[in-house]
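Anyone else keep sequences and structure tokens together like this?

Example one:
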Amino acid sequence: MKQSKTAPTLGLICDICGSRYTDAALAFCPNCGGILMKEMPAQPDSLWRRWDWLRLLGLALIATLLTLGMLAAAAALGLRSGASEREQRIQAMADQHFAKGQGYLSRGEYEIALAEFEYVLQIAPGYPGAADAIAQAKSALQGAPSPTSQVQGQAAAAAFAAGKAAYDAGRWEDVIAALRQVQSLDPDYQLEAVQDMLYTAYRSEGLALLTGDQLERAVAYLEQAAAIRPLDAGAEAQRQHAASYLTAQRYWGVDWNRAIELLQGLYSQAPDYRDVAARLLEARITYGDLLARQTDWCPAEAQYAAAVRLHYSAEVERKRVAASRACQKATPTPIAGGITVTVTLSTPVPVAGFNTGKLAFAAYDPLLGDSSLYVVYANDLRRQRVAVAADQPAWQSDGRRLAYRQHGDRPGLYVANADGTGATQIVSGTISQPTWSPDGTRLAYAAPDAGGEWTIYIVNADGSGTPKAVAKGRWPAWGPSNSLAYAGCGRSGSQCGIYSDSNPDDPRPPVRLTSDPNDIGLAWSPDKINIAYMSNHSGNWEVYIVNIWGGVTLLTNDPANDGLPAWSPDGSSLAFISDRDGTWGIYLMRPDGSQQQKLLELGPVYPDWLNQRLAWAP
């Protein structure tokens, strides 16, 4: 009798590796992660083929469902496609060029391999193994015979051909990689064509990246293009906008003044650029809140006012009003026992525009035969003498200290408290037009050098150290953004006018804003983008404004003498000197030149008025 064959034990089988399991609780293969399916008994050939077809159909359905699931998950997560795709593309490029470098290295083409590895580190700093590969290639180069010019030429030609193919296809990253190899192999190979293609590749890729979130890389590419030849006006404007935007981000929360200056400049040029309007508004409000917490009410009010002008908000307007009231209450009062005296104004009627802070000025004293320094306060219209035989006042930004020029037996640069007490000599001798740094730690002034040429110097406000010469010129005015403006000329004695140095501590040259040697009496606006000054372009002295981004505006137009402008702390008014009614006086006007009216009388005599100065502070 024949024994029947024992039927095989049926269980689960992996659809990938074929492993079998009898545990019905398993869903996935412990060996490879494949799907476990029930094992079917052997069937006739035709039936098995039908099952195989159904099995394949099921797997296709499963794959389709998995694909759809992945797409749905990607959509749900957002994936930040712009940044992620670019990162993946850069990583893929780095992988590709690293593999090329390894291939060149194995074939003994060390120079090409070195160029590949160096490019990998350029596009993907810290790429694993790249630094070791560079060291290996360099070591091999030292021990290998120098390649012949023919070999180098062939390699350069191959790289050039690859770059040209990428150029025709518009693959700018590949163009840059290939042509940089050409330059490393043979700097003179097809030089003009290489430069032309590199310029286009750098410019095109830079402009493309500007639309995404890789501004730093975009600016770097545009600067590479500009190093080959100047960018066209449109591309250069976009590069400057992006550079200002990035720099403002670096100063955000660290130096609010600098961040606001950069954002304001960008907003003035391109108000619709990215989110510059929203960022500028946020910066001004945040900085205003910070100043308010520090009880610096007057600067806080200025920030709130600028924010309200940018975008009205009832909440910010309430802050501005509160800061303005606190600012007026914080105005210092004279200290008893000093040299100050109180003098009533010739007219006690308040003048529109003089509603905040204090104004310093010099007036001729006939009893002394010299000028004396006075301060008039907006809150109660009183006038105080704070120094005798003195003029050219300059307030520290917070209004707590006053710098001025002293005459008499001990001439020089002096610093005193707001009421004139505690006067200290900082520099002795002939000086002119002192002005404070924004942080109040230094002073700039003009003085003749050893050869008698007027020179701009900077000195520590406490008198320590040696004054440092920074430029040739007169009438220095240190702005709230740290830019030092002055009246001067070029080295040849030509190209005269107003110059602005964005950082007097570095060697970069200043920018010339005007072109007349008689543009003097400089005063920065609180918003850091305008300089008021006086000039006799038309044959008599008038007051002008020059914008640092370009453009000059005439504010006064009178046959008399008008000059020595000074901005109010909030930028809403300008004070100036004039003799338009037959006697000298201080006048006020709006920044557009309207509403001109006299504030107070200075008398019929005002000696050397072109070398005087007004100073307005919180």
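And example two:
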Amino acid sequence: MYKVLLVDDEVLIREAIRQNIHWEEMGFELIASCENGKQAMEVIEKTPPDLVLTDIYMPYVDGIGLARYIHEHCPDTRTIIISGYDEFEYAKQAVRYQVMEYILKPVTPAELTEVLEKARISLDEQRAKNETLKKLKGAYRSNRPILRSRFLNSLLRGDERAEELEEKMRELEISLPGSVFNTAIVEGDDLSPFVSRYPGVRDELALFSICNIAQELIEQKGLGVVFQNMDARTVAIFCAETKEALDAAMEEALSAVRSTIRELLLIETTVGAGEAVAQLSRLYQSYEKAKAALELKWLLGGNQMIRSDTSNRGRSAPLDVPHWAERVLQAVKAGKTEEIERIIREFAQEIREARINRNRAIIYMQNLLLTVVNAADLAEEQEDQIVKEEKELMNRLYTYEHLRDMATDVISICTGMSRLLNEQRDSYGKKQAMKALEYIDQNYMNSDVTLNSVCSYLAMSTSYFSTLFKTHTGETFIEALTKKRMEKAKSLLENTSKRAYEVAEEVGFSDPHYFSVSFKKATGKTPTEYAKESRNR
């Protein structure tokens, strides 16, 4: 029987609900009726109910306040709100406190019965979960077959003598009948869904539960034995009379194991399957293949079965790291972040397709990054920053669960490097543009000043300088030079009695006529007209 508490400030409603619901037939016991949330809290403190039916608008403590109290103090108690208030704010708060139903008055006995039925089903599911957890914890606390586990681990290391196997297996009640044998390793990809489902539970229980499920589905069908190795990974040893039967049994059993673990524990798994051997004394060879297959999870991703022959499908030729580094470097220098990511992802895919083992793949990624950093030609301060990030990455390389995560980190460093190069170019460009403006200030009176002369002074190509100068000043070099000369010419015409040809010579024009044309274009007046107007003011 599930205990039910009824809370409503209207006595007629309380009585109507109490009398019109067949409580016991539905598996419920109505333990009390309260007229407000305050009374309900007192009852809950003494006798926590499984289900609370409550109104919202009540004196002292309303239904929302009661729902909050239940949510904070009795998380296993279900709450159903029966209210005459169809307001969004109430419903929103109800969701916040995990109220399972929000129904509006007036409610008929049939409607309430239907809601109670749903509540009972939910309570049944929770009880089943609690029972499952209780059983798992009990099984975990029970004595584990230590000697059995030690022997099987020793067998998979190749430490057991062939002539002693039969006797030891008989003593430990290990049955592996058949002519061919194979191994598989079952590994949980992420244990957090199970651990978070049951607060206080540690990873060890999740690992034990994986092994427990595999044991039930494999050992009870006589397909082999299951145990945990020294790393707490679940290992299955399969046996059969023929390789065909062995392969079929492994495929079916491991598929069932993975789906059951997903269903009961909410954990996705990856399986590394070994290679069949004809003698138990050679089982270690199968196990090494299974471990090699599981290592490919780092390359291929998890949530799948990886067979031992997968590791033999790669290419034998080494990767051309300098080629990839040059492509990345060009994208870094060009500031093309999308290109950087695409190239590094392609590089990771080539590692994946070549079935390169974890350690060598890490070396390839290290070499790629080192080559790009060394060739990037960063300023000293910026290089120090990137080198620091690079060193931190080198320390993280062996902690990555998947190649894609490592690639993401390398992409981040390379895009950061690209950004720093852009900033460096901007800073350099501004400095060169300022030098060019200073050159104009100091040499505008020289008629030999040209684009070529300033580029020679700055040791830059004319095309690069022209782009750089335009970017940082908004005008061409000739425009800036002419502007400076016109400003000086106006000053001379305003403040001296010099004639136009004399002014032209002083501001760098060897041809007085060309000066007059340029001056009129800039001011709208000839030098003579401008001087006359300025001196008569």
